[in-house]
Amino acid sequence: MHDLIESVIVIVAPRRCAGCDEPARGIFCAACDALLEHAATPTAMFHYGGPIADAIHRYKYQGRSDLSGALGSLMARGATRQWAGKVDAVVPVPLHWRRRRARGYDQAALLAKPVARALGVPALIHGLRRVRHTPSQVELPHHERRRNVDGAFASRKLRGAERVLLVDDVRTTGATLAAASEALREGGVGTIHTLVLATRVLT
Ligand SMILES: [Zn+2]
């Protein structure tokens, strides 16, 4: 039955590679799949670059919110391998409402849902709030990135979420995840794990 549903979906809307938009059988076509660099850390799925960077770029900056399903399921696979039974909730690193309004969606929130579903825990989409609008980390020199996001987040009281998996699409220096973790800790979360789709740094 599952196969039948899959083939119907293929007929109605042929699958496209998340990296290059060519027809593909899976999330990536064979050529892109061969170029993916898997990260050797439990906190990231891939090294940022090549097809995954193209997919993320399309997802974030070209209005392709439909890629959240494919990219979210990639993350969900990694999350189940590492964090099944070890976290009580998934919390995404939120966008500031102004940026969310401009983009029409919050990319990390869309990724958090399939990850939480795979882990069998709630996705606390509003667990963190971005209280300050900050320039994108990518636009800033390294030494200014920590200061840029310092105090940028506030946590809501997360009942029953002693152990949280904090998720984001990209880790640039780790400063954003550190600031978001600090806010969660102030909100009473004891253990914080992090997972990103792609990392620009190795730690
Ligand atoms: Zn491709």
Description:
There is one protein chain. The mean pLDDT is 90. β5, α8 (175-186) and β6 (191-199) form a beta-alpha-beta unit. The protein has a domain at 68-199: 3-Layer(aba) Sandwich (Rossmann fold). The strands form two sheets. A four-stranded parallel sheet has the order 1-6-5-2, with helices on both faces. The chain is α/β, with parallel strands linked by helices and 203 residues long. The protein has eight helices and six strands, in the order ααβααβααβαββαβ. α4 (68-83) crosses α6. It has helices at 2-12, 30-35, 50-61, 68-83, 97-103, 107-119, 142-149, 175-186, and strands at residues 44-47, 89-92, 128-130, 153-155, 163-171, 191-199. The protein is globular and about 45 Å long. Helices cover 42% and strands 16% of the residues. Bound molecules: zinc ion. Zinc ion (ZN) binds next to α2. Zinc ion binds at residues 17, 19-20, 22, 24, 28-29, 31-32, 51.
Stated plainly, the CATH topology of the domain at 68-199 is called: Rossmann fold
Mean pLDDT: 90
Estimated share of beta-strand residues: 15-25%
Q: What is the name of the CATH architecture of the domain at 68-199?
A: 3-Layer(aba) Sandwich
Topology (elements, then pairings):
Layout: H1 2-12, H2 30-35, E1 44-47, H3 50-61, H4 68-83, E2 89-92, H5 97-103, H6 107-119, E3 128-130, H7 142-149, E4 153-155, E5 163-171, H8 175-186, E6 191-199
Parallel strand pairs: 1-6, 2-5, 5-6
Antiparallel strand pairs: 3-4
Bound molecules: zinc ion.
In short:
This protein has 8 helices and 6 strands, in the order H-H-E-H-H-E-H-H-E-H-E-E-H-E.
